[in-house]
Write a sequence for this structure.
């Protein structure tokens, strides 16, 4: 018995990983980059009427489309990174209904971050135009030219684009409620300057 106790005492303690309380640097970069790109792309779409039709508006909308493609690429990377480096758990005392709402909100945001750019690319191609990524290369054609279908996709793209802004606003509002009302540290997990 004493021999077993001395062996146990001689073994170094097993190191356990500390529980993650914040998102890592890569996820912070992806989250805030995608948020900024979506806001800029939305602002361009809303402000395009201020630019007269012609080469300037075409160039502006090329930037809008390129930002959408970049969002799509970063969201794909974000999904892979999320699988490799899972997010920190919600605070232990989070109500089950809030957990469900958070999961549903995140699922809807991811779905829209994929659907909005895809609808935009398909719409542009259905209207007979290529989609070039910042003039570097053209995306493969996903949809054959079909102006009627392009018009339908345009309405869908605008509807989903508005939905993502509304949902992102609700997401930000929920984060502020967590921070100022519930005071549970949820927002600081995603702020670049939060507690480390």
């Amino acid at each position: 018995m004493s021999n077993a106790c001395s062996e146990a005492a001689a073994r170094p303690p097993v190191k356990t990983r500390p529980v993650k309380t914040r998102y890592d640097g890569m996820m912070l970069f992806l989250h805030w980059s995608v948020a900024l790109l979506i806001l800029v792309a939305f602002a361009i779409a809303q402000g395009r009427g201020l630019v007269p039709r012609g080469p300037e508006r075409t160039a502006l909308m090329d930037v809008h489309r390129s930002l959408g493609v970049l969002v799509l690429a970063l969201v794909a990377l974000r999904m892979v990174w999320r699988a490799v480096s899972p997010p920190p758990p919600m605070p232990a005392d989070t109500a089950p209904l809030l957990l469900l709402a958070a999961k549903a909100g995140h699922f809807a945001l991811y779905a829209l971050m994929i659907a909005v750019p895809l609808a935009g690319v398909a719409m542009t191609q259905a209207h007979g135009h290529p989609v070039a990524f910042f003039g570097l290369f053209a995306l493969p054609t996903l949809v054959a030219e079909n102006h009627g279908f392009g018009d339908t996709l345009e309405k869908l793209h605008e509807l989903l684009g508005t939905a993502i802004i509304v949902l992102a606003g609700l997401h930000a509002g929920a984060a502020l409620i967590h921070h100022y009302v519930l005071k549970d540290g949820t927002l600081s997990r995603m702020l670049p300057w939060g507690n480390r």
